[in-house]
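User: I'm writing a tutorial on reading structure tokens. Could you give me a worked example: one chain, its sequence, then its tokens, then a sentence or two explaining what the tokens reveal?
Assistant: Sure. Here is the example chain.
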Amino acid sequence: YGMPTDTDERHAEKARVMEAALKNACDVPLEIMRKCCEAIDTQAQFAKKGAAIAISDVGCGVVCCKAALQAASLNVFINTKAMSDREAVARINTEANGLLDIYTAKSDEIFSAVAARFKEG
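And here are its predicted structure tokens:
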């Protein structure tokens, strides 16, 4: 942010550097989102096949994974909002929104199924 912009060349260089930095800043939170989705898939398997005594751990785990997924998405979106490469923005946001759509719903389903087991008595 502190790069000089007192000439056209410096302004262009700052814009180039900032765009590259913003794209790079999306990489880690997007990868975190992917890993959260993998973990939610794993929690789904635990909910189906895991020991009944540990089912509350599945509920806790899926809630934490969902929170991390959502938190990471905010870091993706704050960076894409500032990017000028609209093609890259569309690609990154499409992936992030797709992961959110699928896996927040999936985590909610898993949590509800786990919670229902405690209500059955």
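What the tokens reveal: The two ends are 59 Å apart (CA to CA). Helices lie at 8-49, 55-82, 86-119.
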